[in-house]
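Hi,

Apologies if this is the wrong queue. I'm a grad student, and the batch job for Glycerol-3-phosphate dehydrogenase [NAD(P)+] from Psychrobacter piscatorii produced an output file that my downstream script rejects. I'm not sure whether the problem is my script or the file. Here is the sequence I used:
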Amino acid sequence: MTSPNDSNKNNNSANNEAGNNTSEKQNGMLAGILERASKSGIGRKKSTPNPVESAVAKDMAEIHSNPTKLRLAFLGGGSFGTAMANLAARNGCDATLWVRNKRTVKAMAKTQTNKKYLPGYKLDDRLKYSHDLAATVKDKDIIFIAVPGLAFRETVKNIAPLISGQSIVSLTKGMEKDTFAMMSDIIKEVLPEVNFGVMSGPNLAIEIMKNMPSATVIASESEPLRHAVQAALHSAFFRVFASDDVRGVELGGALKNIYAIAMGMAAAYEVGENTKAMILTRALAEMSRFGVEEGANPLTFLGLSGVGDLYATCSSELSRNYRIGNMLGRGMSIDAAVKKLGQTAEGVNTIQQVHEKATKAGIYMPITHALYAVIYEDKAALGVALHLMEAGFRSDVEFVMAHDHSNAALTAHMKNSSNSAKDNTKDDAKSKNSDADK
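Support response: The file is valid. Your script probably expects a header line. Output copied below for reference.
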């Protein structure tokens, strides 16, 4: 006969065993995530400092105590480039904003406003303006490039003969058309010896100009450059965080534009909060899945340049890509929508680039492929959305639970659905003809 004490011992033993099993499972999940992250390059990368990095490092003590020591050039007079140049000038840096058009430069200097991109917002008195590229970049410490993606390579080539020790930071989000080159790839190709970084995050320019609390990420393998950018732009209303995952931060800033278009289209159909939440979370899964294949750290997509930028861009009507998607959802053609916007919407090009890259590499990107079908294959948005909802079963968080679904399965499903719809149309037509004969 079993005594009460023996029973309690057995229960405790069973509980301990169950607890150990649970702990082992949790540790296994955590180990899986960390292993995936480590394979993607988590941890700081050490590189031999080049002369530019050494020069920045030498002045770091003075920069931290007195940011006015920093001489900065901002190339591109769009909304974000102007907002960052204004912030640097307000922090006391020697900041010059370069704009290609001489007449625009004169107007900005006279009115201290950017009437085209930031109308109604007065710029700091200390901000300088120039249309002379050589004079703008000469003797500067850091050159921030904020031109549209289509003009990025040309701009880097134009400043190449003028580089004499300056570092470069890209403020441009997106991919070069037809090459899949990120902005950092272009910098490395054209200026292989130059110290560089990229900046990205949930940074709507108008909100920054309104002094609404905001934050961004500066990513660079150079710690001195990261600190220099933080010293130049960090303020009471604008926080600058650091990362060494250049690829992940840059991909986050480019890929989120795809899903802002999707969210804008969804808003045109007046979807509910459940649908918006589903789009956001599945978009984040696509971004991290693609990023890992490109060598990024998956944990980067949980930060400001990933989920942070994704949320801001997908939630705001200030977003250019959101507005493009909304116009598409209301039946406007892509050409008409881009013309009406009057500004560059990087997501349109990014959809094409990522669709082609993911298809070749076998990366599962259903939302991206669906948008490609709508924009480039003239498929009906609502029909494509319904096909996505029927596209089989998947795991939720893929770093925890593996999956085996593929692009091929998705493509086959969408083709079958499309063929079924055509067959139904033919049957309806035959039925109508038969009724007419009767």
